[in-house]
Design a protein that fits this description.
Radius of gyration: 22 Å
Helix content: under 10%
Order of helices and strands: HHEEEEEEEEEEEEEEE
Number of helices: 2
Largest sheet: 10 strands, antiparallel, barrel
Shape: elongated
Structural class: mainly beta
CATH architecture: Beta Barrel
Length: 281
């Protein structure tokens, strides 16, 4: 039964759960001498720099009463490149303070196939519009490693995702179907502080620090306001003593903010391949 349930989970989640299970097993076997200097994952400061090839999906909508606008099929938001970065200070053997930043900005020009309404402004069918979606995340956090062994660790992180999102649609003055249309612009912004928590792990696959798996899952359900989940999983290859190459995939975020009379709604998913370097000091 457990095997059947695991097969129904997304692949990235299965990787995380399998690695966590293995780390729990390793944690139950206490080595005779577990000195700190024996750990492969021994550092004071780690800096991650990741290229992220994002595929955005979802919708935006103004205050209550407006129909959602699909950002992919209607505004033509397609794949684009951005970056993520994280600085992790391990100030004791099991305690971390860290901060993550993740900017996302994408613009497109397209012709509307239907009349849409956004933030009280109407954009008629066949208008040529310029759309911009901007999201910037800063996430300070704390992590405690509940298991730390020579070949890896399992930690629990708690962080505050500060997400500043803006969606803007603009159309220049133009003629559509023989009728002149005035220029029109609509913009909706939201600053959402969202607390999230979840596991983070690193597992070395060989009896040396050359090859490892690393991943995390963070999330929080905010009842009527919305919810957020994110995960990243990658294979790491040590290039030098203080330098590693990371290759993997991430669900950078799946953010749902429900609209209300005084705020716009966002349903945005950023997911795709990641590649980058991490440096330790």
């Amino acid at each position: 039964m457990v095997a059947i349930l695991m097969l129904k989970l997304p692949s990235c989640t299965r990787v995380v759960l399998a690695a966590v299970a293995l780390l729990l097993f390793l944690g139950s076997v206490r080595p005779a001498q577990a000195q700190q200097n024996e750990e492969f994952d021994n550092y004071k400061l780690r800096v991650y720099t990741l290229w992220f090839y994002s595929s955005p999906t979802g919708s935006i909508e103004g205050p209550t009463g407006e129909q959602p606008i699909d950002i992919q099929s209607e505004l033509d938001f397609q794949n684009y490149s951005t970056f993520n970065a994280k600085v992790d200070w391990k100030f004791t053997r099991k305690n971390h303070l860290y901060v993550t930043i993740a900017p996302n900005d994408i613009s497109r020009t397209t012709t509307l196939t239907r009349t849409i309404e956004y933030e009280g402004q109407t954009f008629t069918a066949n208008l040529v519009v310029q759309s911009n979606l901007h999201s910037f995340l800063v996430a300070p956090g704390y992590q405690y490693d509940i298991i730390r062994r020579r070949r890896g660790h399992l930690g629990i992180g708690v962080q505050l995702d500060l997400i500043d999102s803006t969606a803007r649609i603009h159309a220049d003055a133009q003629i559509v179907g023989g009728e002149p249309q005035a220029a029109v612009t609509a913009s909706g912004s939201l600053l959402a502080p969202i607390p999230v928590a979840g596991p983070q792990f690193r597992l070395y696959l060989t009896n040396s620090p050359k090859l490892y798996l690393e991943g995390n899952v963070y999330g929080m359900y905010l009842f009527g306001y919305g919810n957020l989940v994110s995960t990243s999983d990658w294979l790491g290859i040590s290039l030098a003593k203080h330098l590693s190459l990371d290759l993997g995939y991430q669900l950078g975020s799946r953010l749902v903010i429900n609209n209300a009379a005084d705020r716009p709604g966002f349903r945005l998913t950023q997911k795709g391949a990641i590649a980058g370097l991490d440096f330790t000091f």
